[in-house]
Amino acid sequence: MPTRAYWSGRIRLALVSIPVEVLPATKSTSRISFNQIHEPTGKRIRYEKVVPGVGPVEASEIVKGYEVEKNKYVLLTDEEINDVKLEAKKSIDLSQFVDEDAIDEVYFDRPFYIVPSDEDEDAAEAYIVLRDALKKTKKIGLGQLVVRGQGSIVAIKPYGKGLLMETLRYADEIKKADVFDELPSKKVDADLVSLAEELIQKKAGEFQPEKFKDTYTAALRELIKAKEEKRPPREIEEAQPVSNVINLMDALKRSVGKGGGDKTGDGKPAGKGSDSKSSASTGKAKTPASKTKTAKSKSAKTASKTAKKASRRKAA
Description:
two-stranded antiparallel sheet, extended, 7 helices, 14 strands, eight-stranded mixed sheet
């Protein structure tokens, strides 16, 4: 089934006009949604619009209200709201261009693919010209788009062989980052940072989103399918929980493979500790090294004293 266009119109760059279609770059069908069901009858729950003390009301009696104080509303009709909606424009005027990294990522909202319109033979050529020009200048085009009476800021940039449009949040929609103000401004150990850097480099690689699995949704789908087929659900593999970090330096060393007890004699990771496994097999707990040395020292002294006593007896 072909993707339905979110918007169709023209991108304008001064006197250049490019017929395009804007298509959603994301989908929500992978997510699972539920309906509420009345269990005894198996029928779906429906909601009635009611007023306390009055009962069910007709749709024609309902207006929208904006709460200005507790239980105090400014009432607006659909006609009044429609009067202030923006007039739908069939064009995106690129009014400004900024560097690729000029927009803080917190402003980006929703991505869309832009493709040239099939209805115009010259659309593809103008489209490619815009794409290549943005690539060579390393710029992003900014404009505004009106859909369903509401305006959005949009950023248009090269994306592979085509163009990507992302809607942007308005400045008053972004919270200040003052949540970081209370973070302590302490200087950390340079060795800790060095170990963290080494760990990051070890795990560095290409972004492969398919490696990250939505195990919750997979488990839900399996549960639904199992119930439909009247069988027990299969277990969905999940990542093992990470143990609590007790010592940061020790945790980092173990993570990069520098910890003293991280590897066994054959070079394999010890996991939870090869010593613990060997101790378990003998039924004895491992004695700490410091205690072992002390015990050896004491036994040596005892042996020395015993030998001296024996030699005295022989001399007598």
